[in-house]
Amino acid sequence: MTGGGSGGEPFPGGRAERFQPERARADFPALSQQVHGRPLAYLDNAATTQMPAAVIDAVAAFGRADRANVHRGVHTLSERATAAYEAARATVQRFINARAAREIVFVRGTTEAINLVAQSFGRAHVGAGDEVLVTAMEHHSNLVPWQMLCAERQARLRVVPITGAGELRVDELEAALGPRTRLLAVAHVANAIGTVNPIAAIVERAHARGVPVLVDGAQAVAHLPIDVQALGCDFYAFSAHKMYGPTGIGALYGRAERLEAMAPFLGGGEMVSTVSLTDGPRWAPLPHKFEAGTPNLEGAIGLAAAIAYLERWDRGAVAAHEQALAAEATARMAALPGVRMIGQAAERAAIVSFVIDGVHPHDVGTILDRHGVAIRAGHHCAQPLLESLGVPATARASFALYNTRQDVDALIEALGAVREVFA
Amino acid sequence: MNDARGDDLYQTLVLDHGRNPRHRGALAGATHSARGDNPFCGDRVTVALLLDGDRIADARFDGAGCAISTASASMMTSALVGRTRAEAESLCRDFEDLLAGGADDTTTAALGELGAFAGVRRYPVRVKCARLPWQTLVAALAGTGASVTTE
Can you tell me the ipTM of this complex? Predict the structure, then answer.
């Protein structure tokens, strides 16, 4: 776990507090419970993180006092709701250092963000014989929308392979960027094995060939500094629920000139400036053109609260803490008989993927759960990746800011029980 | 019974069949077969039968899965050999009752060793693992050649 998985970029400074994991843990009500009579060791953070009380309370406070529809009411509550919703957008803009708030589109999550780009940008720019480039380490959400698009447009989906360690073959990427490549879609962090991709360098190569880049940032936002201008990407997608926020909300960043040139994804209210039955509709300006219907207001407010919570801490210290826990877990697990680590990229997020000889990951997951240890077992919605690494499924422990050494102890102890049952 | 080990799920008999599955492999001359998938975990199983008239002369399964689905397939195929089609279908219904928690004493008695799966119902996600081979068996007996899925 060298390099700290930070991608080399420092976190932006601020008025952050010194990071104290034990204090952070106390901020998350769900973590104080017992599961099967043991203290919960929640290590399924790459799937969904828990929410701090600050986020839960922000959503509840909106529901108690400010709930109304946005952008149309002339009454006080609607004005408050609109202000809170647009303030949330500004918070996201600042968090990822976008140039303008209109470059931030609220969506249901990473999956919807990618589908928006596939359906809107993709349909306009990808035709018969064109190519869309993805990598072998993508989550299904950054694969299936492109498969659907390519099938519809009779285009070709090309896949950049990975090494046995789980790193992107950058030489192959270079070779795959051709005259028919219309878009490159790549994960910032691979969800199943934690590989951190060198996005800025990848974008530079793609842009040199005139190829726009979409980055799936779902696994990155809570753990790495995100500066979309420094990364240079055209689109960046992420979800709130992997960064201590609610489910059902996320954001798509798109460079203004890209979004301006794109047709709407969904039609309806909120996304039009004028509608007439004789002429066609005129689209609302960015970002509302892409936000048909009443948006997920609670979600946006929860996402902004999650960002505020994250930024309360010294994020460099948070990242170092997560990395230290993952490194300790990796070292102690590698010493257990029959345990094999999957994914050995030099730059890795705090994600530990492993298999145990002769024991299916699902059986590992069930026994760990009996010890209060929550992990993910299965293909992690990344079947092509696991196929290229030669395993049908893995068990995955993933770390967040509230995890502690006690969680690592619980994991190691529970793995001992797995060995006993399946001896 | 030590809950922390999941002993109600991982009964000795189940662990034994999971480790050393019986009736695993291809079945030459199979008259009926079907494939089943559990998209949730990627488990897949093929069930093949050799019917002699109305009687199951041989049964095999193949595929990769967890201890629960492997043991379920192993114990299912072991129980099938020698039964008539109607008896096999009845066994399927009894096993489903067991997984759903509705097995009475008569049903449990009819299931014999398969009663070792009674604890699975306390693990809702793992019920699918135990059910997959049986769903596949039903498809094989129906003879449509279709594949089934747990979802």
Answer: 0.86
